[in-house]
Amino acid sequence: MTRVLVTGAGGMLGRDLLAVLAARSDLKVTAATRTDLDITDAEAVRAAVARHDVVLNAAAWTDVDGAERDEAAATAINGDGVAHLARACAGHGARLLHVSTDYVFAGDADTPYAEDAPTDPINAYGRSKLAGERAVARFLPETGYLVRTAWLYGAHGRNFVTTMIGLAATREHLDVVDDQQGQPTWSYALATRLVALADAALAGGAPAGIYHGTCTGRTTWYGLARAAFTLAGLDPDRVRPTTSDRFPRPATRPAYSVLGHDRWAEAGLPPLPDWRDALSDAFDSPTAPAPWKVA
Ligand SMILES: NC(=O)c1ccc[n+]([C@@H]2O[C@H](COP(=O)([O-])OP(=O)(O)OC[C@H]3O[C@@H](n4cnc5c(N)ncnc54)[C@H](OP(=O)(O)O)[C@@H]3O)[C@@H](O)[C@H]2O)c1
Fold first, then answer.
1. DSSP H or E stretch at residue 120
2. What is the rounded radius of gyration, in angstroms, for the C-alpha atoms of the chain?
3. How large a percentage of the chain has pLDDT more than 70?
4. Are 47 and 88 in contact (CB under 8 A)?
5. Mean pLDDT of the chain
6. Is 125 marked active-site?
7. Any idea where the RmlD-like substrate binding domain is (predicted)?
8. What torsion do the CA atoms of 68, 72, 76, 80 make, to the nearest 10 degrees?
9. pLDDT in tens, 233-277
10. pLDDT category, 289, cuts 50, 70, 90?
11. Pairwise CA distance, residues 273 & 13, whole Å
């Protein structure tokens, strides 16, 4: 029986991975939350990876502004921690599917970033995640899978969609930035795709390397907030467009976070769904209960 280790199993994506894997009686799943396994502990990582065929890594430092204040701490997890996982997978012959980010790119393009486009992060979080990507590429050139995602929202954990719907309870109008382009991505859809990629990898049908795990299409945070309001039965005109300079934050955000998805074809898989379809599925989903349902 195929043995799967999920690291970061208590996070937003981690919990959706466990939900997807729960339907698979052909897999033996080990769920490791941060309490069970701290990926910065090389020895513990080596022991945990042993006897597994595939590792799905959803563990990360995800506080983008916090990384600006303490880049070393973010890199210890997103760079060194991932290197421990990659080394352990190499040692035990396990495949590693590691989740990365659009923030490895500068965000100054005007056409979608291809999987092999040059990286050039503009903030500490992006640099820390790029260090993790390099570790996977170095230690697992044949069995390492980097899946870059972005703008994640889901049923578990704090995210933009739940924040917007929550704010609607106390504010008549919300001013939301309309000058950053991206691809909102439902964490449950990404989890489903990661498991499919693991299947393909184990069957020898997916080449190692970089895949872009974002929904297709594009919008702005303003567009996403309006779409979420509409699905929640709220008046979308309560959302008003504004610009990023009204909300100065420690970490600079890329203005253009639109990724291309050509590589999925090599694994025999389609790209993830359009962001609007995924958002609508998320609001309707019986499998991943959505706390943003207010109707
Ligand atoms: N959220 C987004 O919009 C977004 C965008 C692009 C890429 N990503 C990537 O997507 C992946 C999943 O993100 P997410 O949104 O699910 O984040 P999340 O909810 O913050 O989950 C991350 C998990 O990792 C755990 N963790 C932190 N440090 C750890 C360590 N040293 N050892 C083991 N576990 C540790 C966290 O535990 P604690 O909560 O206890 O610290 C948390 O459970 C990450 O690789 C992230 O970089 C996310």
1. none
2. 18
3. 97
4. no
5. 95
6. yes
7. 3-284
8. 110
9. 999 999 999 999 998 899 999 999 999 999 999 999 999 999 999
10. low
11. 17
Report helix, strand or coil for 208.
coil
The residues facing 214 across adjacent strands are none
Kindly give the distance from the C-alpha atom of residue 126 to the centroid of ligand 1, in angstroms, as a whole number.
Answer: 14
Pocket lining: 73 vs ligand 1, CB cutoff 6 Å: no
Name residue, tokens 């929550």.
166
Q: Are strands 144-149 and 95-101 parallel, antiparallel or unpaired?
A: parallel
Q: Which atom of ligand 1 is nearest to the CA of 38?
A: 32
Nearest Cα residue to 228 out of 286, 151, 287, 157: 151
Q: Given its phi and psi angles, is residue 117 left (phi above 0), alpha (psi -120 to 50 degrees) or beta? A: beta
Q: Which of 256, 212, 263, 222 is closest to 242 using CA atoms?
A: 222
pTM of the entire predicted model: 0.97
Ligand 1 pocket check for 62: Cβ under 6 Å: yes
β-strand 219-220 against 152-153: which pairing, if any? Answer: unpaired
Answer whether 11's CB lies under 8 Å from 159's CB: no
Which residue segments constitute the domains of the chain, with CATH numbers given? 2-159+184-217+257-273 (3.40.50.720)
